[in-house]
Task: inverse folding
């Protein structure tokens, strides 16, 4: 038996070595699965982009901001001079949270009257919002305890005093942090990506299968005109699909939607860079910005430009690959 079995084994090893695609499937696929499932599929959110509006500009307010950064949960991306600037950065997705320190914060802390700071949060992504909300409250409690201890030591007291710092949280766009509000726009993107790609590609293949591709070849139509002409009808169909999903999407069971997608902010930096070459990443920002936040075109301009560039490149590549001949 082994005399017959060994030649077959040897033959298969030769095929494996000579076939780079088989080697790639065998060795690269497990690594990709390890990276995607082990690192990308995580809900541990770190370094949430934070914008700071510090109206006090005191050592005490700087200490509070440093406490947020030191927690490793937030990363300050910008400091602004008005609350409207803060709202703009949260609207366009540059920041996911905002810290507003009122004037007189330091004097309130020192006097023991109790200072209040406001923490606003983008609730369009419930996973990021929930984690950030809990972290902000905990940071406020820790900082308040430390200030309280310093106050007691300075006064030589042992009794407790009034809570010196209160972090008041406010969730924008999705106050209840309902997962279905976050998931439905994402599902729109997924459905459109699959449907538009499948229908458009099958339309061109169908021309060849039915033998009508020759009629298109002899016409003066240009390749890019053919590609655009094939895409536009299905783009209109995709629009109807979008309306259909929007009309029935809140009726989807939330148990199906919970945990269905993982936030990009929770992924390692490398995978966040990889997500930048996926058109769906930008489309989700646009559709969630419109459906959940109600932001205007200007706030979504970078994502719209990116999608337009993707569309132009794909149409160009499709036109170049299409040849008006049968061979």
Result:
């Amino acid at each position: 038996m082994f005399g017959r079995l060994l030649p077959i084994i040897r033959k298969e090893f030769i095929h494996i070595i000579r076939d780079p695609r088989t080697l790639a499937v065998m060795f690269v696929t497990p690594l990709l699965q390890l990276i995607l499932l082990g690192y990308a599929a995580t809900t541990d959110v770190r370094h949430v982009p934070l914008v700071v509006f510090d109206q006090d500009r005191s050592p005490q307010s700087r200490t509070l901001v440093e406490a947020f950064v030191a927690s490793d949960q937030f990363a300050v991306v910008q400091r602004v001079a008005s609350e409207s600037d803060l709202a703009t950065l949260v609207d366009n997705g540059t920041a996911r949270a905002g810290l507003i320190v009122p004037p007189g914060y330091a004097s309130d802390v020192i006097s023991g009257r109790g200072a209040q700071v406001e923490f606003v949060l983008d609730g369009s992504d419930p996973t990021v919002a929930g984690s950030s909300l809990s972290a902000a409250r905990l940071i406020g409690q820790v900082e308040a305890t430390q200030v309280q201890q310093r106050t007691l030591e300075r006064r030589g007291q042992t009794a407790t005093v009034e809570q010196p710092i209160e972090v008041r949280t406010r969730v924008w766009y999705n106050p209840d942090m309902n997962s279905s509000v976050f998931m439905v726009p994402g599902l729109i993107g997924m459905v459109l990506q699959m449907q538009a790609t499948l229908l458009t590609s099958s339309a061109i293949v169908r021309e060849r299968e039915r033998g009508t591709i020759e009629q298109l070849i002899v016409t003066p139509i240009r390749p890019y005109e053919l590609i655009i002409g094939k895409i536009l009808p299905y783009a209109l169909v995709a629009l109807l699909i979008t309306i259909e999903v929007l009309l029935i999407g809140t009726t989807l069971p939330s148990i199906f939607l919970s945990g269905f997608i993982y936030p990009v902010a929770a992924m390692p930096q490398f995978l966040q860079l990889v997500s930048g070459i996926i058109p769906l990443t930008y489309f989700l920002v646009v559709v969630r910005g419109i459906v959940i936040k109600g932001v205007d075109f200007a706030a979504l301009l970078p994502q719209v430009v990116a999608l337009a560039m993707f569309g132009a490149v794909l149409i160009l590549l499709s036109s170049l690959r299409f040849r008006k001949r049968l061979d």
In short: The first helix runs from residue 2 to 18. Strands lie at 48-54, 74-79, 97-101, 115-122, 165-172. The chain has three domains: 2-40, 48-172, 179-321.
